[in-house]
Amino acid sequence: xxxxxxxxxxxxxxxxxxxxxxxxxxxxxxxxxxxxxxxxxxxxxxxxxxxxxxxxxxxxxxxxxxxxxxxxxxxxxxxxxxxxxxxxxxxxxxxxxxxxxxxxxxxxxxxxxxxxxxxxxxxxxxxxxxxxxxxxxxxxxxxxxxxxxxxxxxxxxxxxxxxxxxxxxxxxxxxxxxxxxxxxxxxxxxxxxxxxxxxxxxxxxxxxxxxxxxxxxxxxxxxxxxxxxxxxxxxxxxxxxxxxxxxxxxxxxxxxxxxxxxxxxxxxxxxxxxxxxxxxxxxxxxxxxxxxxxxxxxxxxxxxxxxxxxxxxxxxxxxxxxxxxxxxxxxxxxxxxxxxxxxxxxxxxxxxxxxxxxxxxxxxxxxxxxxxxxxxxxxxxxxxxxxxxxxxxxxxxxxxxxxxxxxxxxxxxxxxxxxxxxxxxxxxxxxxxxxxxxxxxxxxxxxxxxxxxxxxxxxx
Length: 460
Known about the structure:
It contains no helices and 33 strands. The chain is mostly beta strands. The strands form 8 sheets. A 5-stranded mixed sheet has the order 14-15-16-17-21, with no helix packed on it. A 4-stranded antiparallel sheet has the order 1-33-32-31, with no helix packed on it. Strand 16 (about 280) and strand 17 (about 290) form a beta hairpin. The model is unreliable at about 1-30 (pLDDT under 50).
């Protein structure tokens, strides 16, 4: 019998005790007015996975019951942990709707159960389009229908992968149930079946947890990372036709990472988190550019790029690591900083589920138990590590906007923290329901997906 002493993919990672914050002042967060493209939130964790949206005032506090700063609320059927994405006046979400009227089990919190939900029901995997101004559902289309090939975790969903859009297309990736691309009016353009993609626990194959790696669209191509129990790969397809541009095999076990596109004058690359293969791939050919192995056995957080560095983190199966890797890294890398490829690294405060982000000059890393840490992104100096609350779990990734950080708990309490090198809690606002999905931000509107709703929050 295999005994799992660590927590499942959807549970707690033990945190080290926080230290007192430093008193060093923080540079101002970005404040320049965004372009039309920058006002969009086209994929998981925002444009290029950066996790922030600036140029507009956003709400510090709100009240769902009284309607204070609530722009609108729209019911979304089914069970899904995927995030909303935004382009112009349209919001896209996906969901998994089980046949029958009985509500699905969803067990949140910090626990170590790794077993799957025993359910052979049929599902409709749907894509919905909502109007940004009032939340009206403009269309709802079925991408796939049937009994899913794999099962889900009690804390998970069959629709945990976030859509991606470029304003013309909407891509959804449901793992074993395929990659599907619609146009923004809801017409299905093409679908691709990759066979069974089992992303469960590699140590206990019977523990299936569902699919969560999200697609990314960039310059006419849709990119997918498929780390599964066997035949892992990363690939690029023409978004208009579905024609494969390239496919590169990966020797890695299941992860839930969403890749990040990073383009500089010197290099065009797709950056992936991984255990046996954290690395960068040429965006146009799929050729491997750099590789780092052995960082943590179930890496989930999406990489983020800033200040000439690539930030990656993991926190399962060993030390809770954070890496700052040169965007020009080459070849096989070492875990120890070398001043050339790995610029700085930490063995503590890494994240298991939540994606990090860089806002101004600071790197923010959130953990499953509610501890957030703030770092000098360039040097690795840690300014603080503080716990948001004394209980509950945190699965959704935090985001930043208007000089503030937003961190939702699984129970639906959103902690608003002032950006900067000193920890300052500004507010705690309740959403009224479980919140497992990472929020989105666009043109001053914060979008939170709860157990049954999409809630738009904006200053009024």
